[in-house]
Design a protein that fits this description.
- The chain is α+β, with helices and mostly antiparallel strands.
- The chain has one domain (1-63): 2-Layer Sandwich (GMP Synthetase, Chain A, domain 3).
- It has one helix spanning 14-32; strands spanning 2-5, 39-42.
- A two-stranded parallel ribbon has the order 1-2.
């Protein structure tokens, strides 16, 4: 799952980014009972749709 991260939270420290990834993965697992790999991307990377927003981009089978 790709998640946009606000620019202010990007750091040069890989450990900081890994902690954010783990926190998001844990929150998804605990709240939705969904296990998934999280990829952090820069703000504006995920395309916006008009009207109803996309909540999840399903990339299964895309690889």
């Amino acid at each position: 799952m790709r998640c946009e991260l606000e620019q202010e939270y990007f750091t040069d420290d890989v450990d900081d980014l890994q902690r954010v990834i783990q926190k998001v993965e844990r929150a998804l697992r605990d709240t939705l009972n969904v296990r998934t790999k999280v990829e952090l991307v820069e703000r504006g990377t995920i395309e916006r749709t008009e009207g109803k927003s996309k909540k999840i981009l399903d990339l299964r089978g895309a690889l």
